[in-house]
Design brief:
The chain is α+β, with helices and mostly antiparallel strands. Helix content is about 35%, strand content about 35%.
């Protein structure tokens, strides 16, 4: 059963005086907050909090006689008609809820590797070969010289592309893993604490920010609009921005009784998970050429990580946390108006939604925008024709 609660605030629409007709205005809603949640056994259920409000957008024009309109903190007609009935801009590039849930589960599973040792060992042969090829290419470039011919330019482009791929897929991952090993004991200690929480009555609960997805946003640059057309036709400009932040809450339960696990056994299990000391579907997937490109459009790799079972646990539930915030802003202005000055105060339409959305984790199609670095990798692949994982 759904429960809904609402809070309202109001404002005055201001005074209009013209041709001897005095309009004192009226009260209208300028703030509305609606909160809904599910009333049922358990927790971690659906939740939605929505806020809509506006401030400002007030016209002021001093009295100048019978025929000229006088305004005192008069709310413009466009906002009076709209009230709090507005929403967010359309934001593109956000993955689907199942894809987000799958990514969150992959990042919170107690079996996730900190350094995937078997995969790195199997790739050492490729690393040695890539370093040798890089040295041969650089030596060849020095001995032949940079001749300004089509053949030479193409050769150097291939060398640079090959060097970039070696850097992105071999050298940088190896350097990152070596740095991670420096924190190995700390990571094992943290994983031991996760196992202790996993075997508790509530299981392992983790809330994370999906930071690698970034903050998605949409904007409208300065755009003309007509806030007032009755008595005086008025033109102004506004800008708008919508931002979306994403997070997730995951709950894991053990698939076997861990209550009798000794401290030594628990630490050994944590060490095995941190180092990824197994060879399973996740390991094989990382070694398959072009798997990274498949993961860009269909998150198979996350699915393999979720189903890695070094520490016996299963995903009990996952909720996506979505925070959407929008502002539509008119900075206001002052202009000559007869013998006086007409002013429009700064106005802001504000919209905010906070949601907790229960969902199911499974691989789903997604086509996020490529970063500059990812485009560089694709360019290097196109130049060299090289296959890579």
């Amino acid at each position: 059963m759904s429960r809904v609660r609402q809070t309202l605030g109001d404002t005055q629409t201001g005074v209009t005086n013209r041709f001897g007709q005095y309009d004192p205005g009226y009260s209208m809603v300028n703030y509305a907050k609606t909160t809904s949640d599910e009333v049922a056994p358990g927790d971690n259920l659906a939740f939605h909090s929505s806020v809509r409000s506006f401030t400002g957008f007030l016209l002021n024009a001093p009295y100048q006689g019978y025929y000229v309109v006088e305004w005192r903190n008069k709310l413009v007609d466009a906002i009076r008609s709209q009230g709090t009935n507005f929403g967010h801009l359309a934001v593109s590039g956000i993955p689907t809820l199942p894809a987000l849930a799958e990514k969150a589960a992959a990042r919170t599973t107690p079996s996730r590797p900190y350094v995937d040792v078997p995969v790195e060992l199997l790739q050492l042969g490729d690393l040695v070969k890539d370093i040798k090829n890089l040295g041969d290419n650089l030596l060849l470039s020095q001995t032949r010289g940079f001749r300004r011919t089509t053949q030479a330019i193409g050769s150097h482009a291939q060398n640079l592309g090959s060097a970039n791929l070696s850097l992105q897929f071999d050298l940088l991952p190896l350097a990152e893993d070596l740095l991670k090993i420096c924190n190995f004991q700390e990571q094992v200690d943290r994983r031991v604490k996760e196992i202790q929480r996993l075997r508790s009555a509530k299981g392992l609960r983790r809330t994370i920010k999906l930071g690698e997805l970034g903050d998605y946003e949409a904007t409208i640059p300065l755009t003309s609009w007509n806030p007032q057309s009755f008595d005086v036709y008025i033109n102004s400009s506004y800008s708008a921005r919508t931002r979306v932040r994403l997070g997730a809450h995951c709950r894991w339960l053990p698939t076997m009784d861990l209550s009798n696990l000794s401290a030594g056994s628990m630490r050994e299990l944590a060490r095995k998970a941190v180092l990824g000391l197994t060879f399973d579907g996740s390991s094989a997937w990382q070694l398959i050429p072009w798997s990274w490109l498949v993961d860009w459009c269909y998150n198979i790799g996350d699915w393999f990580k979720v189903n890695r079972n070094i520490i016996p646990a299963q995903l009990e539930s996952v909720c996506i946390l979505r925070h959407t915030r929008s502002e539509y802003v008119d900075e206001g202005w002052s202009v000559p108006f007869g013998s006086q000055t007409l002013t429009l105060s700064r106005g802001v339409n504000f919209a905010e939604d906070k949601e907790r959305i229960p969902t199911v984790a499974y691989p789903d199609a997604q086509f996020p925008f490529l970063s500059g670095n990812q485009l560089g990798i694709l360019g290097s692949l196109a130049i060299t024709g090289r296959r890579t994982r």
